[in-house]
Specification:
Layout: H1 3-27, H2 32-55, H3 64-92, H4 96-119, E1 122-124, E2 127-129
Antiparallel strand pairs: 1-2
Helix pairs in contact: 1-2, 3-4
Length: 133
């Protein structure tokens, strides 16, 4: 199974955690903004461990803290970037759902590339190596 397929599987699982958790917290009466922050944090933590172990098949502890810093740094940049891309696409594409779908696909590709090349890397013969496609 390729890294991209494994990445897609984890992305779907993280989305289920995100949306499912959000729905449950809203139904429980929690503030929508607080609910969103809570589930984003939980989904990001789960996503990090699932991507590290399943997507990129990294089992050794070496580099875990550095990878975590890169992963969560990427996650912190993702939200404003996705809003900017959506805004720019809506200047050209009048239908917001279509613009969001295109924005999500573009950012999914960028995020996959970033995590493959810069976040989940291993040292091989003293050289840092990214994930395989």
């Amino acid at each position: 199974m390729s890294t991209l397929v494994r990445y897609l599987i984890v992305a779907v699982l993280a989305y289920v955690i995100d949306m499912g958790g959000y729905y449950c917290l809203i139904q429980a009466g929690m503030n929508p903004i607080v609910s969103n922050v809570v589930v984003k944090v939980i989904a990001a933590i789960c996503g990090f461990f699932m991507h590290r172990r399943f997507t990129y098949q990294i089992v050794e502890a070496d580099g875990k803290m550095g990878q975590a810093a890169k992963y969560f740094g990427t996650a912190l940049l993702y939200t404003p970037l996705s809003s900017l891309v959506l805004y720019l696409l809506m200047l050209v594409i009048p239908h917001p759902v279509t613009a969001k779908a295109i924005s999500d696909v573009l950012l999914f590709i960028v995020t996959f590339w970033i995590t493959s090349k810069f976040t989940f890397t291993r040292k091989k013969n003293g050289i840092s190596a990214g994930g395989d496609l």
